[in-house]
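Lecture 7 notes: from sequence to structure.
We start with the chain below.
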Amino acid sequence: MHLNCHSYHSLRYGTIPLNELVEQAHALQLKVMALTDINTITGIYDFMKNCEKASIKPLVGIDFRNDNKQLYIGLAKNEKGVGEMNRFLTAHNLEKIILPTEAPLFNDVFIIYPLEIYPEVLKSNEFIGINFEQLPQLYNPLLKERIHKMVVLQSVTYRTKKEFNLHKILRAVDLNCLGSKLKETDYCKTSEVMISTEELLKKFENYPEIIKNTEYIIDNCNFTFDFTISRNKKNYTSSKEEDIKLLAKLAYEGMIFRYGNGNKEAIARIEKELKVISDLNFSGYFLITWDIVNYSLGQGFLHIGRGSGANSIIAYCLKITDICPLELDLYFERFLNLNRKSPPDFDIDWSWRERDIILTYIFNKYGRDHVAFCGTNVEFKYRSIYREIGKVFGLPKEELDELAKNKPANIHKNKLVVMIQEYGKMLEKYPNQRSMHSCGIIISEEPITNFTALELPPKGFPIVQFDMHVAENIGFDKFDILSQRGIGHIDDTVKLIKQNQNLDVNIKDTSISKNESKCNELLSQGKTIGCFYIESPAMRGLLRRLKCDNYKVLVAASSIIRPGVAQSGMMKEYIFRHNHPDKFEYFHDVFKEQLGETYGIMVYQEDVIKIALHYGGLPAADGDILRRAMSGKSRSLASLQKVKDNFFDSCKQKGHPEQLSQEIYRQIESFAGYSFCKSHSASYAVESYQSLYLKTYYPIEFMTAVINNFGGFYRTEVYVHEAKMSGAKIDNPCVNRSENHTTVAGRTIFLGFQHLKSVETKVANEIVKERNRNGHYLDLENFINRVAIGIETLQVLIFIGAFRFTGKEKNELLIKARLLLINYKPQNNNLLLIEEPAREYQLPHLQRAPFEDAFDEIELLDFPVSVTPFDLLKTKYRGDVMAKDLTKYHKREVKMLAYLIARKHVPTKKGDMFFGTWIDANGDFFDTAHFADSLVTYPFKGGGCYLLLGKVEVDYHFPTITISKMSKMPFIPDPRYAATDEKRYDTQNQIKEDVSMTQRAPYPQESEYNLPRQKMIN
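Predicted structure tokens for the same chain:
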């Protein structure tokens, strides 16, 4: 009888989580109920599964609304009905038009209009819904005549009085208004709660015809769904047989390219994989992926295939990945096996500039009726919850900031704050809005609207209304089409090398970028700024601790830095064993046999599964549960507990020492904090090494590419500094040389206009276009005649030195610009056939102080270019010790002067601590640790140069200074202001720093994890 139930998937409206909605129905002994969320089918598949467990007949549909105005409710008679509603809603979502007030003609859908609005003439499948509170209105003769078309409409939106208040808060958040400003029509009726069927029937006992109509709808709504069928596009060719034939042909052709003729190991592996792929009907998936990659290669695009797909030699032969599974001993079963319950997927990265071209190809090739992005539910987050609720209660901005930025325990409590925090707690994990999955694409055999309505987010590609987990549950294997800046660095560098040096670098040939002696040397020194994945302070420190001088160790390093491995202490143990291979024993033969390559340490997801199977004796199904937990796809506590119980029972039966089994399972559990599979680490290592190769041999072009792609670990200033250290000359933007992006000519890098504050892209592009059309600008007057520009933007260009080619001082140019623009009319700015000479003014010579340019640069770029920050200090002192000599000062106190690059905030039990990254006056990087006690007296005070005092600790070749005291050093007064002007020290405060936050605890010390280093036997 409950034909209009809302879950919390009715965004910013419903208050009941889906599983709890069904639990409530089960508690009230309901035998049937309908899920009709507002303008979405997001929850219907989970709803059906939950109803099946509760022995409830599920009805599914949609509550169609414009804004919050209910138009009609649709209930699907069958699968066709769901498709009809999806197509109807999709058309309006994609075309962004409002829904009609009357439903279209549906063949397999019942329509229920609310009593307040219904058409004069009802079709055979259309009814009027009436709530028990509205029954007195049936005394109206006009309504009484309609009883034969009426059904019981008991809507459900909330459960308790508190949830009703939460519903009103959600409505106010949605409407962006104060809670006190809500009108009755903005929120649901107080009667919209679930009641038992007996109670509902009793309320309608005088209207048997209404009950009969309701039962008629219930009896004729029989939507079912087979969750066991694959819904993907089935075949790439015309049949499964043709698919496997084509896949085999491509695999053997690719094998010759990768391995040459007659490689028996490769042939055996291909034959084995082909059988499994065929048995699991996965040849179409491989071929579609190959088709996408083949198109990309044809366009000259660079891609990186990563993830567990790199375990497949067929993927390697088809050029989907560049990881050789034979070289790294990657086993195919990690990607695809007959016991694996969930489908795998390929993760493929493109440059962020080229990804949309790939996506357009996929949508066009496979049909827009069959392709869509996965959706994702964006939940209310901690900070946004309190800010949003606080706005509903009318709190001022200052109090909203306090609520959002501080932990609940640290906020001054009053009745209102307590209420806001209480409702905020209720909203945790509630969906707030639907968005596009970052990379997951579905390619469906049937029209995709058979399963879901589509929506069109701002990015322009349609999305389904459910997330990747639901997609997997209903039979879709997604294709992960990703983008990242790292590939942009590589791709752009290759193009810049061709443009600047006329050299062709085939970076796709991984043989040139896996084992270069010069690259290996820089890798072991952690000189990897700008390189994908290995440029962060933590990663550079790890590379130095390992003296990582080859590709295989880099593969391991890419995984051991992950939270699961690092937090368990296994990262530090790996470092110890790598540096002291003669100072430990494998504590069980299984570890020597299975993990000899990594010194008996579990580093990859595969290692965990190997130990679970070979040491613990667990079945393959339990290994799959562990794999999913480690990859973050599923963390069923009940399933993991069962695995744990099985593990210890099996270890006991095998006679393993209990102490060792406890320690091993502790390590296994830590991997649930995320880790990489080996192939994923290998894929990252390939890309990291490609970046490093380019940086090593073509540093100026590489750093230019990094600057242009943004998105690295550090701010632009750091990459400009690294370019200088590589021998580049850095020039500020120039109207005659620069583009909007940064360019390189020989060894000179011209910063692009895009780095300047207050210069719009449109203006920058016009400067370049006009220069390309009609040649270089002759002088300031010529520029003003040709480019439509306001005085503010023109001043920025003058201050940064964009007219230095004129040979005139900035002060003179500024005065001249103002005089020229007094009578400026934008419509007159074009290239004159004969330019009238500008009136010449006799101007006094205005002397500029030596460092005025540097302060202009800080103001406009956030960092100085013409000098280093050290040149602007009042002090001439540069420290007693330089970064390159720190390893000689183990356990000794040093005093250094350094420029702050980045700091990472790490919460600890004793208070907050920071890890700092700095450069000294020579431009070399070093790292510091700042504990809570020292920070109380000597805190960070923003970007700039600091005097540092601390003790050096050299940990496996890597020095860190534990700071006891530090003080920010003042710049000279800004010479652009008078000596008495209060602004003379303001510019220093514009110097930036990179600040990152982590919620993880500091990595454990050796004494805390106490991992055995000797063989353990009974």
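Points to note: The radius of gyration is 33 Å. The chain has a mean pLDDT of 90.
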